[in-house]
Amino acid sequence: MKSIGKQTRSPVVSLSLTAIILVVGAGPAPGQSGPLVGAAAFGDWRSDAPGLRRTIRPDDLPKPGATPSVAAFPHVVPRPSTAIPHAPPGFKVELFAGGLSGPREMRVAPNGDIFIAETHAGRIRVLRAADGDSKPSVNEIFASGLNQPFGIAFFPSGEKPQWIYVANIDSVVRFPYAGSETKASGKPDIIVAGLPSGGAHTTRNLVFTTDNKRMLVSVGSRSNDAEGLASLIGELQSWTGKYPLGASLGTEMDRAAVLAFDPDGKRLGVFATGIRNCVGLAIHPVSGDVYCSTNERDGLGDNLVPDYITRVREGAFYGWPWFYIGDHEDPRHVGQRADLKGKITTPDVLIQAHSASLGLTFYDGKMFPPEFSGNGFAAEHGSWNRSKRTGYKVIRIPLKDGSPTGEYEDFLTGFVINDSDVWGRPVGVTVAHDGALLVSEDANGTIWRITH
């Protein structure tokens, strides 16, 4: 079963920009003293609640086919007038903007402007709001005529970027940027042409390393599980020592990977391989570590294979398509790449399978309590291939001494109405200039503002 449905465009329903405000008092499950582990951690949307924690460990994974693989696409409905996402006690949730065209990835400029990829409309929108404002005062189209734009980055990093980079499905382009304009001054320059495209997984993201010397671009796999590569096994094994560990070829050349370029687009190599679909690509503001929020493969049952969020180590191989979550061999590729066993890097944080983990950011504001500083926030777009829905929420990724703990916590829930109907599918997360957390969802075209 192909996973292209994880990123299928959802219907867009226009909404008023009238702010809806609620101080939410939802908390963790009564009596929860620690994270859910083992079979309990594989629950579905009905158990989700702000503050509920889960830890999924590699040893907890079921066998492939323990449950059937199903297709259960969500029925997207207009947001009910009373429906507002739920956050932990002490947080306030407001409708920041509505009526947008499938808002996806978001990035905040140094001056506080919020840049949003309206991917299927082929454009970048910019919203401006003064610190503390609950809705934008400026709403402009920065650039249009793009090819399924997703990733956005400012370069060089710091207070005075000179360029805005945008990752299209097949290229990376950049626009001159003086620091405050809300409309591009002209057509973009093409920096990287010919990124792999076609098939599944259309999002391309990009970040710059903290030294501003490398631009990293994530490219998802063309297929669910590299079904067409079996005939190339002999040739693949002959690559050993010539190409990055676990690298694929054929129709999967330069896919399921994070690629490296210099800021002018010169190819520097492959940063990491075997990452099926790194949608959320982010740099930790303190450690400088590269992180991916990743969609894993389908067709092995309700609870396989877990999506994940992980530090991405240069030169590391994360398993796709031959293995998953360490040395678990994919049953569709038994014995095909035994030479790779023991060479797979295990991800840091495993998430309920089929959650469709998308946007990722790290909290570097001052508004939230101190324990949130440096923590990750990831948007879970929601399952289409699980008998009971999972995802459709924003999760928090705690770090301790600069490293993920392996646990994650529900932070923003309430987008699911019942087993069939949903009104929201979170995609982007970013930290506003004043420290609020912003969350986009592309089902009803809204952006939500969470303050403390």
Query: What is the topology, as strand order, of the major beta sheet?
Result: 1-4-32-31-30
Q: How many strands, which pairing sense, and closed or not: the largest β-sheet? A: 5 strands, antiparallel
What is the terminal-to-terminal distance? 42 Å
How would the global form be characterised?
Answer: globular
Average of the residue pLDDT scores:
92
Class derived from helix and strand content: mainly beta
Radius of gyration: 20 Å
How much of the residues is beta strand, in percent? Answer: 25-35%
- Helical amount: under 10%
Low-confidence stretches: 1-28
- The number of helical elements comes to 1
According to DSSP, the number of beta strands is: 32
Domain Pyrroloquinoline quinone-dependent pyranose dehydrogenase beta-propeller: 86-300, 343-451
Pfam families: TrAA12
Protein name: Pyrroloquinoline quinone-dependent pyranose dehydrogenase beta-propeller domain-containing protein
Organism: Bradyrhizobium erythrophlei
What does this protein look like?
There is one protein chain. The protein is mainly β. The protein has a domain at about 5-10 and about 20-30 and about 35-105 and about 125-140 and about 215-260 and about 275-280 and about 295-450. Helices cover about 0% and strands about 35% of the residues. The strands form 9 sheets. A 5-stranded antiparallel beta sheet has the order 1-4-32-31-30, with no helix packed on it. A 5-stranded antiparallel beta sheet has the order 2-28-25-24-23, with no helix packed on it. It has a 4-stranded antiparallel beta sheet with strand order 5-6-7-8, with no helix packed on it. It is globular and about 60 Å long. The N and C termini lie far apart (about 40 Å). The model is unreliable at about 1-30 (pLDDT under 50). This is Pyrroloquinoline quinone-dependent pyranose dehydrogenase beta-propeller domain-containing protein. InterPro entries: 6-blade_b-propeller_TolB-like, Beta-prop_PDH, Quinoprot_gluc/sorb_DH_b-prop.
